[in-house]
Design a protein that fits this description.
heterodimer, A: 380 residues, Arc Repressor Mutant, subunit A, Dna Topoisomerase Vi A Subunit, Chain: A, domain 2, 2 domains, six-stranded mixed β-sheet, three-stranded antiparallel β-sheet, 39% helix, globular, B: 683 residues, alpha+beta, Heat Shock Protein 90, Helicase, Ruva Protein, domain 3, 6 domains, seven-stranded mixed β-sheet, 18 strands, disordered C terminus
Chain lengths: 380, 683
């Protein structure tokens, strides 16, 4: 076991902000519970809300996925749970260390911070990062704090450009002057870190991936149409989703999504709109029930007169996935969506946004998107 | 047998050759090579003895090393059969004396009933003479070739006769004969006492006479001693006399053997069972097992006046009702005279027999060793921690009843761990194999080629080095490697095969037993096994087939033929012991896992204590001690399971039951049953 050296000083309680103090209180409660349990001869346990499909439900009035009340008890004196209990306490102690030293680290950093060989055994505390990532999520839901409140962040993913000026960690960032790369969206975009200074945009256009986003940026789509342009590198990470949420709710900007015409694209839209199963407890601060699906649509192959060569045939997984999505409660009662997905299955092929390039390099920015926006031709 | 000894095939072969040269002539070859007359002059009878003198490999005399083994084996088989038939607990004295580097004197004495004076020369000096061929009764020897063939081999290689001394009672005279076989006539020739043998009186006078003749004789009331001098080679390891005796003792726990090897080492195997196996009953053949040719001969030879009587008297399980049905099906009268039945009608009769429903033969004529004695025998000779045995109920192949038994031993170190430095020197010195790799494979039991390579590599030697060229230092390294290398994984299962209690040491690959062991899926019983090969692991399996007529693939009686019925019984028996082994191994793994898990659990407590104390500055060690105390109480509670009414259950009770015929030897390091006690209970 490598010796862990303590080089950083702990901050005094006065130097911490209110959120950190609250988080620390929760973490210490866990530790105190262990001590109390040991003194009274009880077995220490942590109740963790279960993050499974069976424990999420769709809240019709709020229009997003919520976590149910089911909890799993994680006990120390249970041979099957002892290891994950130990890992949970380790993560708690790691987070406590970060907060009291006023530092943040990545998920991977946390993994390395906690990973060591268990004394007297040949086993590692964590065998891979996936293990620690999942325990971190457990801790988040168990003590009802957010990942950023544990001073943890994920790697940056996603970018933004457009008619907005914001302040990130004290630096003013004018998103109209971001060059070709755009503003890289950090994983923590809470008001303490990111504040909106000035916004002239009228809406947000979220595209699936970097390549399409670059097309729009190069054509200065955001300037012509006075909007904000974001992408999430496929499935948008928490930072991107949280930023979209804040743009939508604080600046009242409508959000339009331009995604591939395949089950994966539908799913990304579903996550942005209703939240995901795994992060159901974050829905209330991430889901955008009013987000709109601009494209690509199953009808576009005919409507845009695309050539056969852009078709990608559906495989069995695609078909299975499409049928599952059709039955999501938030799609099940929407006729246009049923029609859309059914047509995808009937088509037997999927389309990427890039397929539009076969018409003309800037077809998507100059004709397709403006036309759809003008005509209000989207799915909701 | 009868086919190979008849002169006909030779004649046919010759005729074909003549035809061939006839064609050559038509192509314009001027000179005729042989005429029918000149050839007929050369064609004559071949005596059985002559045939085997030239084809000695058929009887197990292929090489000097095997000749020694076969000689001992035939003598021992005969001795044991004689003792058991007479109801005497067998005690044998075996002495192999080295006269010259490649010349040995083999003496085997038993405490059997002795042999009558007039039959001695026939038994030992005439091939195909015996009591066992003409009857269907479970016995070790079958054809009656063995011991006289050994005598003949001795005579061929050394010119010395077979010496027999036999005594039938305490106050009876002993007969002493020196016999050689006349290979041309297949007749014994008595050399001593002017062709009459020598009588040795009982008592002190006899002792003097024995001493005068230079015969080795352990004083018993009755018994027989055979001494054969032969050219041979003595070598330990696989296929050796020593191995044969060890294996014989496993399957015959009621036998005591005193063995003196050529280096004057004495080994005594003392019986662990005081009961003789029950006497096997003799039965008449079952109609389903008889072949057409044999049926024709039986019809000719029978004294029965009618066909119905012939059938009921010559065969087992044929009642007059069954006989009538057979005759009806063959469209023959029940009253027809057997000797008048022609070839064609015999054919019909043969088919009628196969088509008629006849009860299966009685199976009490087959005497298995029994599970208890298999366990005793294996435990005595094979080191191990787990033993299981299974005896199948009797079954029938081609009208012959048989029983399959399987014993299994698991655990215990491989044989290479036992060899001492001196013994290794000797082994290296004696071996005639050319490479070290070969040496390891042939000398030690249950050694796979991977293990051999592992050992050679560990000893920093080359696999192709000659074992004889090792210098002192290399031998030391080799010895150390043999002791040190753990071969549990690379070691392949050791298969001991027996037919009617006789170990089968050669032709393992051709034997139905080996094939069945390979085809059994041992992986589901917790051993590792690659497809179509023997499983690996420190396991020994013994398989015994007992039958009135064991179907061997050749005369040397070393491999059992794979009749479907036999293969099926083999499979079922192997699976029966396999399941028990699987249970044992699973339980052992479970106990070990449980222990490991509990151990690890205690480590987790340490981690938790450290992490908590870092957060809230609680004293770490105090917290750990407290957690440990709670843990001990909790696990103790969990171990005492309560039944519905709140009474405590013994933790072992819910385990699977091994059933009968299992022997578990707790091992010193607590790896056996004792490991079931979890380590967390007593940290």
């Amino acid at each position: 076991m490598a010796k862990k050296t303590e080089t950083s000083k702990r901050l005094s309680r006065d130097e911490l902000n209110d959120r950190d103090r609250r988080t620390l209180r929760h973490l210490l409660a866990l530790a105190d519970d262990v001590v109390k349990a040991a003194e009274t001869g009880r077995d220490p346990a942590i109740d963790i809300p279960s993050r499974t499909l069976s424990n999420v439900r769709y809240n019709k009035s709020k229009r997003f996925i919520e976590m149910g009340a089911a909890k799993n008890r994680r006990q120390l004196f249970n041979l099957n749970q002892a290891k994950s209990y130990m890992q949970t306490i380790l993560v708690a102690s790691g987070a406590e260390k970060l907060i009291s030293q006023g530092k943040t680290t990545s998920l991977r950093g946390m993994y390395y911070l906690l990973k060591h060989t268990i004394e007297g055994a040949r086993e590692e505390t964590f065998s891979d990062q996936e293990e620690s990532d999942s325990v971190i999520e457990d801790l988040e839901v168990a003590i009802e704090v957010l990942r950023e409140e544990l001073h943890l962040y994920a790697k940056n993913a996603g970018a933004m450009v457009g008619q907005i000026t914001l302040i990130d960690s004290g630096d003013t960032i004018d998103c109209t002057r971001m060059g070709s790369g755009g503003y890289s969206i950090p994983s923590i975009v809470e008001p303490e870190v990111v504040q909106f200074k000035k916004c002239d945009a009228e809406f947000v256009l979220h595209v699936e991936k970097d390549t399409v986003w670059r097309r729009f940026n190069e054509d200065k789509f955001w300037r012509k149409h006075n909007c904000i342009l974001t992408h999430g590198g496929g499935q948008p990470p928490r930072g991107v989703r949280r930023l979209l949420y804040r743009l939508h709710n604080e600046l009242k900007l409508p959000v339009y999504c331009l995604l591939d015409n395949d089950p994966w694209g539908y799913y990304i839209y579903s996550v942005i709109k209703q939240g995901s199963i795994n992060l159901a407890y974050e829905s209330k601060r991430m889901a955008i029930p009013d987000a709109r699906y601009l494209g690509l649509r199953s009808k576009d192959f005919v409507e845009c007169e695309l050539s056969d060569s852009v078709k990608i045939s559906l495989n069995d997984t695609d078909r299975k996935r499409a049928r599952q999505i059709m039955e999501y409660p938030w799609f099940a009662h929407k006729k246009p969506w049923q029609k859309e997905i059914k047509q995808l299955l009937d088509n037997g092929f999927k389309l990427e946004v890039e397929a539009l390039i076969s018409k003309d390099i800037s077809y998507v920015t100059e004709e397709y998107t403006p036309q759809r926006l003008r005509e209000g031709d989207w799915l909701d | 047998m009868s086919k190979t000894t008849s002169p006909e095939p030779t004649g046919n072969h010759q005729t074909e050759l003549t035809d061939g040269s006839g064609n050559g002539e038509a192509l314009g070859r001027p000179r005729q090579r042989a005429t029918a007359q000149s050839m007929a002059a050369k064609q004559r009878d071949i005596s059985v003895s002559e045939f085997f003198a030239k084809n000695r490999h058929l009887l197990g005399f292929d090489n000097p090393r095997k000749a020694l083994l076969t000689t001992v084996k035939e003598a021992v088989d005969n001795a044991l059969d004689a003792c058991e038939e007479a109801g005497i607990l067998p005690e044998l004295w075996i002495h192999i004396e080295r006269l010259a580097p490649e010349r040995f004197k083999v003496g085997v004495q038993d405490n059997g009933p002795g042999i009558l004076k007039k039959t001695i020369p026939l038994i030992f000096g005439k091939l195909l003479y015996g009591s066992k061929f003409h009857r269907l009764r479970m016995s070790r020897g079958q054809q009656g070739i063995g011991i006289s063939a050994a005598g003949m081999y001795g005579l061929l290689t050394t010119g010395k006769p077979v010496k027999i001394m036999s005594k039938t009672g305490r106050n009876k005279e002993a007969h002493y004969y020196e016999i050689q076989i006349d290979t041309k006539r297949n007749q014994p020739e008595i050399l001593n006492g002017k062709g009459e043998g020598v009588e040795i009186p009982p008592g002190a006078r006899g002792q003097e006479a024995i001493a005068k003749h230079g015969i080795e004789w352990h004083d018993v009331d009755h018994g027989t001693r055979v001494t054969i001098e032969l050219e041979a080679k003595y070598q330990r390891g696989r296929g050796s006399v020593d191995e044969y005796l060890e294996q014989t003792v496993i399957a015959n726990p009621h036998v005591t053997v005193h063995y003196r090897d050529p280096d004057n080492n004495d080994r005594d195997f003392v019986r662990v069972a005081e009961q003789l196996p029950p006497e096997p009953k003799e039965i008449r053949p079952h109609p389903y097992g008889v072949e057409l040719g044999r049926l024709v001969t039986m019809l000719k030879e029978t004294k029965a006046p009618t066909l119905a009587q012939f059938l009921t008297h010559s065969f087992s399980r044929v009642s007059s009702k069954v006989a009538r049905r057979v005759c009806d099906a063959a469209k023959l009268s029940v009253r027809s005279r057997p000797s008048r039945i022609g070839r064609h009608e015999a054919d019909g009769l043969f088919r009628a027999i196969q088509e008629t429903k006849i009860p299966a033969p009685a199976t009490d004529c087959v005497v298995p060793i029994g599970e208890e004695l298999i366990l005793k025998g294996l435990h005595q000779m094979v080191p191990g921690e787990f033993f299981a045995a299974a005896t199948r109920p009797p079954a029938v192949y081609r009208g012959n009843p048989f029983v399959i038994e399987v014993g299994l031993a698991y655990g215990g170190g491989p044989s290479n761990h036992k060899v001492s430095r001196d013994a290794l020197d000797e082994l290296l010195d004696q071996t005639d194999v050319r490479t070290l790799r070969q040496f390891i494979l042939t000398t030690f039991q249950g050694m796979s080629s991977e293990s051999a390579d592992k050992i050679i590599e560990a000893a920093q030697l080359k696999p192709r080095t000659s074992p004889k060229n090792l210098d002192r230092e290399e031998t030391t390294r080799f010895h150390e490697a043999l002791q040190r290398i753990n071969l549990d994984d690379g070691q392949s299962m050791n298969v001991l095969r027996y037919a009617n209690r006789v170990p089968l040491q050669f032709q393992a690959g051709a034997c139905a037993i080996t094939q069945s062991v390979m085809q059994t899926n041992w992986r589901s019983y917790g051993l590792s096994q690659s497809r179509g090969s023997l499983p690996s692991g420190p396991a020994t399996v013994m398989v015994h087939i007992a039958s009135v007529w064991v179907p061997f693939t050749s005369e040397s009686k070393e491999a059992v033929a794979a009749y479907p019925e036999i293969a099926k019984e083999l499979r079922l028996a192997l699976q029966a012991v396999g399941r028990k082994l699987g249970m044992y191994l699973r339980r052992r793994v479970r106990a070990r896992h449980e222990g490991e898990r509990r151990n690890l659990f205690l480590r987790y407590l340490g981690e938790v204590a450290t992490a908590v104390s870092q957060m809230n500055q609680a004293p770490r060690d105090e917290l750990y001690e407290r957690l440990l105390r709670v843990a001990k109480r909790k696990t103790a509670e969990a171990d005492v399971k309560l039944d519905d009414r709140g009474r405590t259950l013994r933790p072992d009770e819910d385990d699977e039951d091994f059933g009968e015929h299992v022997l578990i030897v707790p091992t010193a390091n607590g790896d056996g049953r004792t490991a079931a006690a979890p380590t967390a209970k007593t940290p």
